[in-house]
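Q: Got a minute? One more chain.
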Amino acid sequence: MPIPFILGGAAAVAGAVGVKKGVDAATKSIEANRISKDAKSLLSSGQSQINNNRYEVNEALEKLGDGKVKLVKQLERYVRLMNQIRNIDLEEIDLSTSEIANEEAFHQLETYTIKLTNLLAGVSLSAGSGVLTAFGAYSGAMTFGAASTGAAIKGLTGVAATNATLAYLGGGSLAAGGYGMAGGTMILGGLVAGPAVAVGGFALDAMADKQLETSKSEAEKAKSLHKQQQLLAVALENIHMVTNSFNKLLLDVRKLQLKSDKALKAIIQEKIDWTLFTKYEKETVHTTLLVAQLVKGLLETNVLDESGELVTETNEKLNEIESRTDEYRVKFQ
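A: Always. Here it is, folded:
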């Protein structure tokens, strides 16, 4: 009779072990699910921050591009005003300035303005087209390019057309294909945007079906990827900060150009012969050209370089232009 008892006891022990293994398997499954959920949440929060920063940068660059378009139109009006003056001789003005503001400088400005005006006339400047974002990030030549005949090209060309960062930010094209065709492209100093950064980069939803060790391994990959997400978010924040500073300065420069035009109009409404201008009027005309050159310098300032990274010298250049803006503003008060 003891044998059945022993066999029954062995069966009970075996059953208990089986139950324990079942409990262990369930525990591991729960742990794997938790790790999966945490990893997915980590990447999701990182991607949300990137998407938010990306939207803000694109909005700021588009606003900057729109402001630049308006500034070009102001420059065009200034050139028309200056061309009304007869017998002009800016060489006789000596204001002890290191800046060259003579007839040759004006003709260079005039040529620049005409070219840029023609380029702008040849593209769509509607919001969301990607063109304003590109013009915000780059100068006119880098944004649009020009045919050998000088005619405007219909759309983005050169750097602006093939830049992955720009396509990523504004939906413009890697040569008209948009960022949808640039998935996984290296942007902003080698950071990868696209499928690798998206939450779906790992098969996180399937992690619950994997063993615990596999889940832990995938979670480590998620942590590594999240570090890339953080770097990309910071890079976007830096572009946003510089672009906001640029927008603020551009508004100040536009106001300065309006004051300059007003002063120039007041003079030529009375007379257009340079030889009849007073010393003060000649100096005022000279100052208006300095302001216009300042405008040109601002329009030629790039936020991004050819590789799509933030230009480190931009802040310094904006500070310099801001200082000169304050200096010239006093002359029109």
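A: The beta strands are 186-187, 191-192.
Q: Perfect, thanks.
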